[in-house]
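lol ok so funny story. i was supposed to be doing the assay writeup but got distracted and ended up predicting the structure for this chain instead. priorities right. anyway since i did it might as well share w the group, maybe its usefull for someone
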Amino acid sequence: MPTEVFEVEGHIIDSLILAKVLDAILDSGAEYRIVDVQIGRASTDASRARIEVEADDDVLTTLATELQLHGA
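and the output, tada:
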């Protein structure tokens, strides 16, 4: 099954962006694996996560559009 890696960066924890991205992936029926995550230590530090998503091509295409709304 095809895979694609999405990356989100910024205040992804306190703004719930990471949770929203993971919810969107699960709601689409896709599977995911968190490849890398770096959490900022201070409130001014950005965080970053790389998420590998496995799904059919049409689902990946739809997810790419949806996840762009969350900054991926």
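The first strand starts at residue 3 and ends at 10. The chain has a mean pLDDT of 94.
back to the writeup now i swear
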